[in-house]
From TrEMBL:
Family: Belongs to the thymidylate kinase family.
Name under which the protein is recorded: Thymidylate kinase
Organism name: Candolleomyces aberdarensis
UniProt pathway: Pyrimidine metabolism; dTTP biosynthesis
Family annotation (InterPro entries): P-loop_NTPase (IPR027417), Thymidylate_kin-like_dom (IPR039430), Thymidylate_kin_CS (IPR018095), Thymidylate_kinase (IPR018094)
Amino acid sequence: MTRAPFIVIEGLDRSGKTTQTSLLQARLEREGISTKLMKFPDRTTTIGQMIDSYLKSTSELDDHVIHLLFSANRWEMASTIETLLNEGTTIICDRYAFSGIAFSASKVTTTTTTPSSSSSTDATTVPKLPFEWCRAPDVGLPAPDLVLFLDISPEQARLRGGYGEERYEKEEMQARVRQAFKRLGDETRTSSPTGVAASGKQWLVVDAGRERDEVSAEMWSHVELLVKGTLTSPIGKLWN
Ligand code: 2DT
């Protein structure tokens, strides 16, 4: 039995992720490939509305609670994802579980101390949520066949006009998130040294600091291989 591929686009804020995701969808449609665009968080569901008000800082939630809501927001779409792929619809997904881990694991508590011998202060940051705790709720979700990670340096993000108003859109947070994404990417490559696992799972870093068309051409070159090939492997499960 053949099925369609599941493609996830991850990236830092200001990487052009949303624009690139729509360009990719338009390209797939021009090629006559049946495609569904998904986005997480999906702010339209009841859970998604709770996430939306948290991100806009109109509500406060415990860090554990919001993390689990982000994951639940994916689980509520898990069976739809599987059905669509098995029916032959390619899924392009703007953010997924990797964002879930990268952002939550990047929240820190900062304590400042002033050593008695010095007049300056030292800042120590401690993660609020352990990395593995952040991964656990997403274990078993449908696994993407390809993750394109749109990478941009903090300097380039600054040149693009800096970050927005939502929670997490702060330079220090974004720098930690970038490291967490790198860790997830390295992990995927280590578990499959060529970057391609038996199931076809791949994590590719795309330099998103370039011109829009250059970035979209590179993304298409990776996606084309997958959508024009034949996928017979069953849908994988994340981190299983
Ligand atoms: P957008 O700007 O792409 O709407 O994302 N986030 C996202 C998390 O903290 N956990 C998650 O599981 C997901 C999917 C990233 C809104 C913000 O939500 C963060 C930025």
